[in-house]
């Protein structure tokens, strides 16, 4: 069917505008965290919001009020989880995971690479992107909870405080330190 009538087009136009404006208002009210760099949890919420918007726009049997309630529910749940994750480490670990060290003192950590499903070539690319020309000039490469790589250079005093809270395969660190 190519055209079902002007009524369905008008409904899509009106509901589309109202749903879009509602979603934008909800996202602005919910704060910057809702639109932050995506980790797995945020990606799920974003995809669910998009799916809800599409359903409200195109499904005649879904009322705008139901779509607005679904937007509010998804954003409210995300707010509750992120609020809880700031206050409880176990919630944070459940929702976003932990960053994982993949390279330490210029040495690849093979077990961590396999567990994270990352290749040595991807680590080398991240090091190059950070403007470092030698793997041995890198203190660590960390796979962050949003899927990005952080390249940590050795500090002047060697404190390594930016690596606090990073999952480290202990048996490999002992090997890497030799």
Automatic annotation (TrEMBL):
Keywords: Cell membrane, Membrane, Transmembrane, Transmembrane helix
Protein's membrane topology: Multi-pass membrane protein
Subcellular location: Cell membrane
Domain YetF-like N-terminal transmembrane: 17-81
Chain ranges passing through the membrane: 12-29, 41-58, 64-83
Gene3D superfamilies: bsu07140 like domains
Boundaries of every YetF C-terminal domain copy: 88-156
Superkingdom per UniProt: Bacteria
Family (UniProt): Belongs to the UPF0702 family.
Protein's name according to its UniProt entry: DUF421 domain-containing protein
Organism: Halomonas rhizosphaerae
Highest classification ranks of the organism: Bacteria, Pseudomonadati, Pseudomonadota, Gammaproteobacteria, Oceanospirillales
């Amino acid at each position: 069917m190519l055209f079902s009538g002007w009524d369905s087009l008008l409904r899509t136009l009106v509901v589309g505008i109202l749903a879009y404006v509602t979603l934008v208002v909800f996202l602005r009210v919910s704060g910057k965290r809702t639109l932050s760099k995506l980790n797995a949890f945020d990606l799920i919420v974003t995809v669910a919001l998009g799916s809800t918007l599409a359903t409200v726009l195109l499904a005649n049997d879904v009322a705008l009020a139901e779509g607005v309630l679904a937007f509010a529910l998804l954003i409210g749940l995300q707010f509750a989880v992120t609020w809880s994750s700031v206050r409880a480490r176990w919630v944070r670990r459940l929702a976003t995971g932990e960053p994982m060290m993949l390279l330490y003192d210029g040495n690849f950590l093979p077990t961590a690479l396999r567990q994270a499903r990352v290749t040595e070539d991807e680590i080398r690319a991240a090091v190059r992107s950070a403007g470092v020309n030698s793997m041995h000039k890198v203190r660590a490469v960390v796979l962050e909870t949003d899927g990005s790589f952080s390249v940590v250079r050795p500090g002047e005093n060697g404190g390594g405080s930016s690596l606090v809270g990073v999952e480290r395969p202990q048996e490999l660190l002992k090997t890497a330190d030799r």
